[in-house]
Amino acid sequence: MKRVICLPLILSVFLSCKSKTDDANQENTNSRLNQSPALIHQFKPIIGGLWVKKDYVKKVKKTKSPLEAVEKGQGITVMYIDTAKLTGDSISVPVVWNNHEGNNQSLKFQPGRNTTTIMLGNDELSYKLKKDTTLIIYHYDDKTKETNTAQYIKAMDKQPEGGLAAGMNFMINQAILSGRYEGMDASGKKIVARFTDDGKVNGMAGFTTYYVQDDLITDPLHSHDEIIFNMNTKSQKAYSFIINKKTLSLYDNSEQIKSNKPAFSLKKQR
Q1: Which residues pair with 120 in a beta bridge?
Q2: Burial class (CB in 10 A: 0-12, 13-18, 19+), 240
């Protein structure tokens, strides 16, 4: 007796299953896209601006030392969300990693694992509203099945001329250095100086700008915190520094710190 194989029937079942799978995938895609307008309406008024990593800035302020806060300065440390650049359901978000390198992440107004998050690259973004708005990045580790979170506070509404890094510099300056100082240099000459949030300085022997070094993860040789005056000019000058309560001590090099004879000793007035 010959065995009869009904190919048309098998093909019909296969096409039917494939059609159902395709329909389910299309329905899921459409469902996610249909949520985009609501998510844009929810998130867009809140997430715009330049954001810096909260724990890092908090540690810098507490220790008065970017070097002491290095372990908090890992991952995305700065990001700028310009909601005016929304295209469809996405925004290209420039970010800084480890206070060192930059790239772009795609922020998509599509739901993450729940309706309180949207997609940021392979991670997810949410927010919380209290006295000040905080953004939260959720990172899911597929290997450990653990979820890590990082919180961000707004530094400013617009990206400064100096780029994303300037936003972090602004927050560091504001946290530990900005203000009016009085003191003297190594020769005993009286110094009255002012450091501003945006990296300007006057009263410091011809220096007009300053930068507190925060790119330290990739340079483990730093033994002390460093401030650079007139950076990227012929008159550039770097000093190691220590802030003890209200006193800012600048040293020509880290070895000089051991002798306790600073090039400048300045006390913050306000």
Answers
A1: 107, 123
A2: buried
